[in-house]
Amino acid sequence: MFSRTFLPATSEAGLTMPTVSRHMPVLRRCIEHDDPAVLVARCVRPDRPLGREYLMVLTYRRLVLTQESWLTHRLRLHLNTELRHLGNVVWHPDQRLSAVEFAATAVDGIRERFLVKVNHPKQVWHLDALFSHVFKPRVLGAQRNDSLLSPVGAF
Fold first, then answer.
1. Rounded distance, CA 87 to CA 153, Å?
2. What predicted TM-score, i.e. pTM, was given to this entire model?
3. Please, which domain of life does this record's source organism belong to (predicted)?
C-alpha cells in the first residue's frame, strides 16, 4: 500500500526520480508497507527559510521527516514518530505565501515547525484538507464518538 501511494504523492510534490530513489530506503525502514502515504512534500523551517530542505512524508499512522545534505546527498532522519505521539498539532494555511505552516510537539517535548511551500495558491487548500483529514477528530452526526477520535487532534 505504501509503495502504491508514495509514488503518486511524490509526483504530485514534483520530486525527481533520483530524489525519490535516495529517500526510499530510509522511508521503507520507517513506514509499514500497509500504511498509505497521504502527503509527500518538501518543506523548510520557518525560522530558517534559506536553510536546508526537508522531505515530509505523512501517512495515517506516522510522520517522517528526512534531511538531505547538499554536497554528498546523504540522508539524515530528522523525525520518525507515530501520529499518536505528537501533541498540539496545528497548521496555518497562507494563500498569500502559497504555503502552509505545520507545527507539532514531538514526544521528547521539542516543538517542530515546518513551512510547506506549494507552486499554486489553490494547492494551499488541498494541503489544508489533507492535514484536516489526518489530524482532525472524526465526528459521527451531531454526536461525538470518542472511540473514533484521532489521538493527535488538538482542536
1. 8
2. 0.83
3. Bacteria
